[in-house]
Write a structure and sequence with these properties.
- By secondary structure, the chain is α/β, with parallel strands linked by helices.
- The protein is 35% helix and 24% strand.
- The protein is built from 15 helices and 16 strands.
- Helix 2 crosses helix 3 and helix 6 crosses helix 7.
- The radius of gyration is 22 Å and the shape is globular.
- The two termini are 26 Å apart.
C-alpha cells in the first residue's frame, strides 16, 4: 500500500507544481520527498485530487436502461462503480430521489437502493454515498430519510419541490415561478385540461394511465399547507446531525433565504441570477451541472454554468446525469480561458469537499486521504483518466494504445 507518483504536474493548494507524491496506508504521506514503495511514472501527465461528485443520477440508466425496463440493483451499481472509477470519481453522492410518484423514484425503490449500497459497500472500488433528494410533498419518505441521516457514510439532504413546479401557473415559466411556499406562488387549476397535457409525459414515464396519475397528483397537492412544517422538522433533524443540506433549482432570493434559515448553506443548480448572487454574498456554496458547461448552456434555458464560473459564482460542478461531463466541463472551461487550470480543478475536488464537509479529501496535502487521479491532458483536448486511487487503493488503470 506504499507507492510514489513521480514526474507529474500536481494540483497543489497553491498551484500546479511538477513534483512527486508519496502515499502510505491510504494517505498522502509526503510531497516531493524520497520515493517509497512502487514507482508510478507520471511524466507528461497531471495528478489531481480525485473527483467528488455531489449530485449524480446517471446510475438510474443502469437501473432502468429503457423506460419500464428494470435491471437488478446489484448489476446496476457494480457497473456504475466501474464507470465512476474510470471517470476519476473517488467519492460520489448518488442523487437518490425519494418521491411520491411510483416507479424508479419511489420510496420503495429508494429503500431497496439504500440497502443494496450497504450490501455492496466492500465490493465497490470507490466510495458511494447518497444525496437524499427529497421531494417535499412525499411525506411517506420522511421515515426512510430520518433513518438514513445517521449513516456512517454521512449523506446529504436536498430539498426538491418539483410538485409545485409541475403545478405552477400555466403561463409561468419555470425560471419565473415564485418561492413555492409564498402566498405569491401562482398555481394552475388542477381541472384545467392544459395541466393534464403538461402531465401526460410524466404519466407515461410512470407507466400508469393519465387519469390515475392526475388523481394521485390531486391528492398530493392537497398536502400543500403541511409542506412547510414537514420541511422544517426534517431540516432540524439534519441540522442536529451536521448533515449538509441543499436547496434545489432556486429561482428567488426568498427561496434561498428560507432554506438558509433552516441550515442549508448550499444552493444546487440555481435557475436565476438573484438567488445565485445572494448565495455568494452570504458565503453559501453554489453548485452547477457540468453538462450545462459541456453543452454550452442549460437545456431548460436557465443560467449558463460557464458564465457563472467566469463570474466567480460557482464553487462546484456536479455530473448531474452524465459522469464524463465533469472532466469534459473542465476541458471546455480551460479552452475558453474562463479561469486557471488549478481553479477549474477545484470545482470538481476542493469545492465539493467543502460543500459536503469532507475535511479529509479534496486536496493533495500531507495527511489527506489518498484519493487521486492521474490524467492525460494534452492542450486543447479532454482529459483522459490513466489511473484512479480511492483511499490509496488502485480503483482504475488504463494504458492507451499510443503509450505502448
Amino acid at each position: 500500500m506504499e507507492f510514489t507518483i513521480e514526474g507529474a504536474r500536481v494540483f497543489l493548494p497553491d498551484g500546479l507544481v511538477e513534483t512527486s507524491v508519496q502515499v502510505s496506508d491510504g494517505q498522502i504521506a509526503a510531497i516531493g520527498d524520497r520515493p517509497i514503495g512502487q514507482i508510478v511514472d507520471g511524466r507528461g501527465l497531471y495528478l489531481g485530487p480525485a473527483l467528488i461528485d455531489l449530485h449524480g443520477d446517471a446510475f438510474e440508466r443502469q437501473v432502468m436502461p429503457r423506460p419500464g425496463v428494470y435491471f437488478p440493483l446489484d448489476v446496476a451499481f457494480l457497473e456504475t462503480d466501474r464507470q465512476l472509477a474510470a471517470n476519476g470519481i473517488a467519492t460520489t453522492y448518488h442523487a437518490l430521489t425519494l418521491g411520491w410518484e411510483p416507479g424508479l423514484r419511489s420510496v420503495a425503490n429508494g429503500q431497496a437502493t439504500l440497502a443494496m449500497l450497504d450490501h455492496l459497500h466492500l465490493r465497490f472500488t470507490v466510495e458511494h454515498r447518497v444525496q437524499l433528494r427529497w421531494e417535499t410533498f412525499a411525506f411517506e419518505a420522511i421515515e426512510t430519510i430520518e433513518a438514513a441521516l445517521g449513516h456512517a457514510r454521512k449523506p446529504a439532504l436536498a430539498f426538491n419541490d418539483h410538485t409545485s413546479m409541475q403545478m405552477r401557473g400555466l403561463d409561468v415559466p419555470i425560471q419565473k415561478r415564485a418561492f413555492e411556499q409564498s402566498p405569491d406562488f401562482l398555481s394552475a387549476d388542477i381541472d384545467d385540461p392544459r395541466l393534464l397535457e403538461r402531465q401526460i409525459r410524466r404519466a407515461a414515464k410512470m407507466a400508469i394511465p393519465i387519469d390515475e396519475y392526475m388523481s394521485h397528483l390531486r391528492s398530493v397537492w392537497d398536502r400543500r399547507d403541511e409542506v412547510g412544517a414537514k420541511v422544517e422538522g426534517l431540516a432540524a433533524k439534519a441540522r442536529a446531525l451536521d448533515v449538509p443540506m441543499l436547496s434545489h433549482d432556486d429561482t428567488q432570493v426568498e427561496t434561498r433565504h428560507y432554506y438558509r434559515s433552516l441550515g442549508s448553506r448550499v444552493s444546487e443548480f440555481p435557475m436565476t441570477i438573484a438567488p445565485t448572487q445572494d448565495a455568494r454574498d452570504a458565503g453559501d456554496t453554489i453548485i452547477f451541472g457540468a453538462p450545462n458547461v459541456v453543452r454550452g448552456g442549460s437545456h431548460i434555458g436557465s443560467l449558463s454554468a460557464a458564465d457563472m464560473v467566469e463570474e466567480g459564482l460557482c464553487d462546484a460542478l456536479a455530473s448531474d446525469y452524465f459522469y464524463p461531463a465533469m472532466l469534459a466541463a473542465i476541458a471546455r472551461l480551460d479552452a475558453e480561458k474562463r479561469a486557471s487550470r488549478d481553479m477549474l480543478w477545484s470545482l470538481i475536488s476542493t469545492g465539493p469537499a467543502r460543500a459536503m464537509k469532507l475535511a479529509d479529501r479534496g486536496l493533495i496535502a500531507v495527511g489527506q486521504r489518498a484519493d487521486l487521479v492521474l490524467v492525460d491532458w494534452p492542450d486543447g483536448a479532454t482529459p483522459a483518466v490513466r489511473a484512479t486511487w480511492s483511499g490509496g487503493r488502485l480503483a482504475y488503470q488504463a494504458t492507451p494504445l499510443g503509450a505502448l
